[in-house]
Amino acid sequence: MTRYHLRNRLKKRVGRWLGRAPQAVERIEVTFVLPDGSEHTVSTEPAYTLHMASQFLETPIHAPCPDGSCGNCRVRILSGQESLRPPSQVEEALLTRALGPDRDPAIRLACHARLTGSGVRVQVDRVWKLEDVRGV
Ligand code: FES
């Protein structure tokens, strides 16, 4: 169970203890095209980043830094750009530093790109491997 699953379970339980019915949360569908060519669609909440949404996959997007400063979690948005918030200044600066000023606008950082609606289709170039976690 990921921390996002845990968060949802806690929200439901706290709501029950306070005598409130759990609120229906709007769900957003995101499709990830993984490096092996397989496609997986996950259902997530608005305002999640692509990286957070990928936690619902068996192997999430490779995002090695905890503070969103390395620029290694690059993904390509195949469709549905309008369902993502525009890049922040920090994301713009990281992408410009890594790819230059004439970069492809379809390239985003998974840990920065926040969802606002359904229909996003994302090409993922790298997912976590067991070796990454173990450091072997
Ligand atoms: S994981 Fe480092 S910038 Fe996204």
Structure summary:
By secondary structure, the protein is α+β, with helices and mostly antiparallel strands. It is 26% helix and 19% strand.
Mind explaining what this structure looks like?
The chain has 136 residues and is α+β, with helices and mostly antiparallel strands. The protein contains 4 helices and 5 strands, in the order αββαβαββα. Helices cover 26% and strands 19% of the residues. The chain has one domain: Roll (Ubiquitin-like (UB roll)). The mean pLDDT is 88. Bound molecules: FE2/S2 (inorganic) cluster. FE2/S2 (inorganic) cluster binds at residues 63-65, 68-73, 109, 111. FE2/S2 (inorganic) cluster is lined by residues 63-65, 68-73, 109, 111.
Summary keywords:
136 residues; alpha+beta; 5-stranded mixed β-sheet
Helix and strand arrangement:
Layout: H1 3-17, E1 28-33, E2 39-44, H2 50-53, E3 74-79, H3 89-99, E4 107-109, E5 120-124, H4 130-134
Parallel strand pairs: 1-5
Antiparallel strand pairs: 1-2, 3-4, 3-5
The site of FE2/S2 (inorganic) cluster has 11 residues, from loops.
Count of discrete alpha- or pi-helical segments spanning 4 or more residues? 4
CATH C-level name: Alpha Beta
Topology as a string of helices (H) and strands (E): HEEHEHEEH
Query: What's the N-to-C terminus distance?
Result: 24 Å
Shape verdict:
globular
Number of strands: 5
The assigned structural class equals alpha+beta
Helical proportion, percent range: 25-40%
Low-confidence stretches: none
Radius of gyration: 16 Å
Taking the sheet with the most strands, its summary is: 5 strands, mixed
Q: Which ligands appear in the coordinates?
A: FE2/S2 (inorganic) cluster
Strand order of the largest sheet: 2-1-5-3-4
Could you tell me the CATH topology label.
Answer: Ubiquitin-like (UB roll)
- Tally of structural domains: 1
The name of the CATH architecture is Roll
CATH homologous superfamily label: Beta-grasp domain
What's the pLDDT, averaged over the residues? 88
